[in-house]
Structures are given as structure tokens and as C-alpha cells.
Amino acid sequence: MSETKDFDAIVIGSGLGGLSAAASLCAAGTRTLVLEGHYVAGGNSQVFRRKHKGMEYEFDVGIHYIGECQRGGAILSILNGLGLAERVVFRPLDSDGYSTLHFPDLSFKIPFGWDNYRARLHETFPNEPEAIDGVLDVMFEVADAGRKLGRGEIQIGEMMEKAPAFFSQGLRPITELFEEKKLSQEAAGVLLGEQGCYAVRPSETPVVMASGLTDHFLHGAYYPVGGGQVIAGRLIEAIRAFGGEVRTQSPVHHILIENGKAVGVVTGKKNRRPEEIRAPIVISNADLKRTVHELVGDENWAPETIKRVDEMKMSVPLFCAYIGLDIDLVEAGMPNSNHFIWGDYNIENVYDELDAGEFTSKAMCYITAASLKDPDSEHLAPRGHTNLQIMTLVPRDYSVWNVEKGPAEGGRYHRDPVYRERKEALMEQLMETAEQVIPDLRKHVVWKEAATPISQERFTRSTGGTSYGVEMSTTQVGPMRMGPQTEIEGLYLCGASAPSGPGIAGVMRGGVAAASEILGVDLMDKFLAGDVVGDRNALPDLCEGWDAWKESH
Asked: In this structure, is residue 99 part of a structural domain?
């Protein structure tokens, strides 16, 4: 076994949480190494490319639309603090309807702004003004307090006086609030129409989660020009410019623990001589359960920690179809909006069916066209074509795919005929449903493929193939989660299962939080104040033709 001792810190996994942590540390002079098992860095922010009959498509894995990109927003503040603000450009979605919700007998366009949102709800449900106002007043107070707390504009000790609903309502199930205010099932369905962005059963969704997501997008919904890989590519560019290193195709086999301290990792490609890399700081951006059980080992944790982690429930996973169309939806005049099609206002029933191990056509059919969000991209799709993705929620149990064990445990699945048949059937069902929004869609398909939760596990090693990590439920939100600091000296956590939660803003905040713990400085406070920690002069010159996907190799 060879040994390397050149780094101050090591980050396992190159999702945006890990990259944000590494870039923050490198900007502060802590030489950091990022190790990624896949051939391209970026985790769920990465893209993949497909060539077909001389044409090329580039599909996003996980970035479809994001908030916190406006001036003063968390994502833009982090990028600015690392010297990258002008290197990532965000394009807003349709301000009058960044998402359009479709239910059996109504459609609802969600506009930017709480006041506009409230007014449109009143128009749509004219017989429920008191119920709508009662719910929105609580949601706004909880969300506003959470935002101010995250920005350091209010301290936790002031919350009881200045925002009492944060404590009295924040961890309460959102369904209880709806029932108390006598909100109709139809209006409740609309208020939860985007909940596929966190995938938690409504009766287990805390008010703070539902309110936070609503607030997140009402301040503006955006897409990064150049695709999701751009954020990862620029963070990698900063890491390298500030003295760090990013290595792909470098899976970590385990974390070295000596005398109760993390002292490095063992890495190396399959069938190659393993390499021991030592550093006094290790940050895991890997799946929480695999970090605890596989990378560290049960023997190095307190028994109560093992029990706590084992009892944590993962989020419901997603299925995604990646589709190339031979028509241009931009030229057709389709607005730059997401679409969520639900077969039932009662979303709780949808989760009943999912937890019973059933595919259900009632679950959201989420339709998003990258070509509408970034019409000038050279990579998304050939001229005159459209890059489209359709997603839905699926059961947690792998048996629905005829799979006994996932690829992380050595399971094989890709060539299984039943697996392929069920994947194809669900993809066809989603395309048929999507024709409610894009008529005759199936006549224009020139490329299609799909990813199941097992695909997600294969590439990210996430437990249960979920994109969102540990479920953000009433018993698993915020401080009830693990990290960023752990009981093992020198070991830190970030990623979707950390206290800041899933989503791009959540994991980037979590990465900065881990770096802040290590450095003993509240970097997020600095970033939100407009401070620039990263040395812009160290960054390479901006140049035409820069390719985020190639930068991430």
C-alpha cells in the first residue's frame, strides 16, 4: 500500500456539498483533496451526454430549477464569496408561472412573490379566503423566521418573541395546519404541488419544510446557464486554483481511524494497489448510512449512534426519463415553466400506494425542458430539437424492479428482462401523461432512456437510491440530523442528509457549514455579508469554449 501525506483535508464525494466544503477550505488556505469514485465530478449536479445519429444531447441528473440565486440568496452569496459570482449566470423561469400545477379539474400557475401567490390562490379558491390566509400567514412567518435565522438577522433566543410560530408551528405536520384552518383538500393539494422536490408524505412533512420550499422558489426560480454541471465545474476550477485537487475514478474504500480520530483514507481503483492518504481532517459527502457502516465501521461509533442512524428513514426515490424531441418547444411558444401533473388532490393517498410497493399514476408527473430554461446552450440538444425530462415518485422497495440487492452490494440488474420491461412501461406511461402538456409528444421522440433508483445507487451509492438522503420529516429535520461535526475527532459530514438538508442550496450551505466548523469561522455569515474569501486573481482567465463537463473530469 502506497502512502501520500500532502493534504490538510480530504473530502469524500464530489457532490455540491463536498465541492463547496473543499472550495471554502482551499480559499482559506487549507489544502484539500476531493476524491470521487465516478469518472466525472458533481454528484447529482452532473450532466451526461448522449450521441445519436450524429446528434448530441446533454441531460441534467439533478439540477432542474433552483432558488436562492437572486442578489443576497445563499447560492449566489456562496459563489461570490469564493470569487465565482461572475462565472455562473442564472436565468429566471417564467415569473408569472415558474411551475404549473395540473390536477384533475384545475391548473394553477405559481408566480414569483408571496403577495402574488396569495392573490392567485384567492382567485382560484374564492370560497376559502380565511382558510388560505390562515395557512399562508403561518407559513410565511415560519419561512421568514427561518430565512432570517439562516442569515444571522435574528438569533434563536429572539424567535419566541419575534416569530413565535417558528417554535409553535415549525415541527408540526403541515396536514394538521391545513385541518385546523379548514383548508379544502383541493387547496391543500395545490399548496403541496411541488412537494416532489423533497418527497415526504404530507402527514410527516413539518410546516418548516413545506414553508421553506415555498419561500425558496417564491423569491425566484432559476436555472444555471450552461446546465447543472456549471456550478460543479466552477467550484472545481476554484479548488484547483486555490491549491487543492479533485481526483475522479478514485473511490474511497474506508476512512482511517486511529485512537478515535480520523487520520485519512484508503482509496484506489478496482484491481489496483490501494493508496493510503493521510490528513487530519476528513469530510464525508457520501451517503450517511454508508459513511457510518462501511467507510468508518460500526466499531468506531457509540452504540446509540449506530441505533440512531439505523432508524433514520430515507426519502422516497425518483424515476427519471431523459428524452430528445425533434421539435423546438421554444419556437412553439411554450412558456419557461415546470409542470407537475397529479392524478389526485389527496397526496397522502399517493404515498399510501407507494409505501404499499405500487407504481401509481396518481403520483406527480414532473415535466421540465432544459431547452426552454437555457435556449442558447450549445450542448443541450441539436438545433430545432428539445431536451426534455419527466420524473415521478416510485416505491422504495427494489423488488418492484425485480431486483434483490442494489449495485453497491454487488447486485446485477441492467440486463434483467423484467427490470427492463418495467422501466420501459413506466417511461411510456410518463410520456403518455406528459401529452396533457405537450400534445403528440410520443410522435416526436428521437431519443429516450430512463434512470431508476437502482441507477441512482449505482452512480452515487445512495441508500435506497434516493436523491434526497435522509427524509426531511417531522422527526428528522434540522438539528435532529447528524453533522457537520461528529463524535469522531477530525471527521465531518455534509450532503443531503446533513442538518441543512437536500437541494442545491441545502447541500451547498451544508458544505460551507462543515468548512466553518473546521476553520472556526462562520463563513456563511461572511458570504451573506458580501465578503469574498477566494482570491479572484488566482482563478484562470474566463475564456470562450470553457466546458464544465470536461473541467469536472
From this structure: no
pLDDT digits (tens, 9 = 90+) for 217-236: 999 999 999 999 999 999 99
Residue with cell 455534509: 494
Do residues 261 and 206 share a domain? no
Q: What is the pTM of this model?
A: 0.95
What 3-state class would DSSP assign to 298? helix
Cα(390)–Cα(214) distance, rounded to whole angstroms?
A: 21
Residue 55 near residue 189, CB atoms below 8 Å: no
Write the pLDDT tens digit of every residue in 366-389: 999 999 999 998 889 999 999 999
Q: Is the pLDDT of residue 448 over 60?
A: yes
Pair (350, 402) in one structural domain:
yes
Q: Are 62 and 197 in contact (CB under 8 A)?
A: no
Question: Which of 189, 220, 251 lies at the terminal end of a domain, its last residue?
Answer: 220
Residue 547: give the domain boundaries.
2-51+61-90+226-312+470-551
Taking CA atoms, 135 is separated from 121, 197, 211, 513, in Å, by 11, 20, 10, 32
* Residue 146: φ, ψ to 5°: -60, -40
Cβ neighbours for 521, distance < 8 A, ≥ 6 positions apart: 28
Which stretches of 168-285 are assigned E, i.e. beta strand?
A: 222-224, 245-247, 252-258, 261-267, 275-278, 281-284
One domain, residues 331 and 307: no
Annotate 449-500 with DSSP letters as a single string.
Answer: EEE-HHHHHHHH--GGG-SS-B---TTSSGGGS--SB-SSBTEEE-STTSTT
Does 30 fall in a domain?
Answer: yes
Q: State the average pLDDT over residues 270-279.
A: 87
